[in-house]
Automatic annotation (TrEMBL):
Protein known as: Small ribosomal subunit biogenesis GTPase RsgA
Classification via Pfam families: RsgA_GTPase
Annotated ranges, domain CP-type G: 59-222
Organism the protein comes from: Piscinibacter koreensis
Gene that this polypeptide is encoded by: rsgA
Domain EngC GTPase, chain residue ranges per copy: 70-220
Length: 287
């Protein structure tokens, strides 16, 4: 399944042709990246079943689950100098990917804007814990961006996630020949005025259909309610590295002999990362 609009889905057949499909039931569990079985019905199609997924990237807000995509090889989180990114949202995206077993990288875009240094510093804890951060100017240095990204994207399906306005679609348009044309074909509204993505969509990077980028709409909320509170520290590499505590079930909030709190005091875990840990943990285990 390559994209969905309301209750319509676009499915790509083995020969690369795309067809609008419906599902049989009212509600469907079909997400972008799913391999589906479908049959023709008039000039449209009906999705009969969804194959088992290799992985599923999703978030779980207080009331609802939002699936991003299935069967992806890696996540590319795009943040920018402007609009100033929320570190909490970035951290949450990385935790969700870690939980889903999906490797991730970060792009800090709009290196051309003033304030770049300050935003770059905010990513220091991520670089220190082993996250690869690519600093790019997608709009004004497209050739450099292409050269640096191409080897990372080769042969993989890469999900592009990040806040609205960070440059996700700019990235897709940079790398996908005719991406705008494809968009226009599916929905004219998406190609008028300022390009703001409203649906998740799968784009092939090559004619052989071996590499793909999945563009997605910006998000505001990123709930992680599908994660067990005791599991959280293990999904944050810097916290995990210091979770050597007196109590095996230490919450890293107040217990004596806590390796995490000692590391925060010693400066080995950044204040902001620990604040985010506590913020998420409070959502997962209130009280
Ligand atoms: N200064 C500067 N602007 C950029 C750069 N890359 C993208 N932009 C601009 O940032 C704005 C937002 O880019 P988009 O690619 O639409 O952002 P998006 O992440 O797809 O946003 P949503 O679809 O709303 O989630 C556009 O006006 C781009 O031209 C850059 O490297 N430098
Ligand atoms: Mg977009
Ligand atoms: Zn502890």
């Amino acid at each position: 399944m390559v994209t969905g609009h309301g209750r319509h889905y676009v499915v790509e057949a083995g020969d690369g042709s795309r067809i609008t499909c419906h599902t049989r039931g009212k509600k469907s569990d079909c997400v972008v990246g799913d391999l589906v079985r479908w049959r023709a019905s008039g000039d449209e199609g009906v999705i009969e079943s969804v194959e088992p997924r290799r992985n599923l990237l999703h978030r779980q807000d207080e009331w609802k689950t939002k699936s991003f995509a299935a069967n992806i090889d890696q996540l590319l989180v795009v943040v920018a100098v402007e609009p100033v990114f929320s570190e909490s949202q970035l951290a949450r995206a990385l935790i969700a990917a870690e939980r889903a077993g999906i490797p991730s990288r970060v792009i800090l875009n709009k290196r051309d804007l003033p304030g770049f240094e300050a935003q770059r510093r905010r990513l220091d804890p991520y670089v220190a814990m082993g996250v690869e951060v690519l600093e790019l100017t997608l709009k004004h240095a497209p050739d450099e961006a292409r050269a640096r990204l191409a080897p990372l994207l080769d042969g993989r399906a890469t999900f592009v996630l990040g806040p609205s306005g960070a440059g996700k679609s700019t990235l897709v348009n940079l790398l996908v020949p005719g991406a705008r044309a494809t968009t226009a074909e599916i929905s004219h509204a998406m190609n008028t005025g300022r390009h703001t993505t409203t649906t998740t969509e799968w784009y092939w990077l090559d004619a052989a259909r071996s590499s793909a980028l999945i563009d997605s709409p910006g998000f505001q909320e990123f709930g992680l309610r599908h994660i067990d509170p005791q599991e959280l520290a293990g999904l944050m590499p810097d916290i995990r590295a210091h979770a050597d505590c007196r109590f095996y079930n230490c919450t890293h909030l107040h217990e004596p002999g806590c390796g995490v709190r000692a590391a925060v005091e010693a400066g080995a875990i950044s204040e902001s990362r620990y604040r985010i840990y506590r913020e998420i943990r409070a959502e997962l285990a209130p009280g």
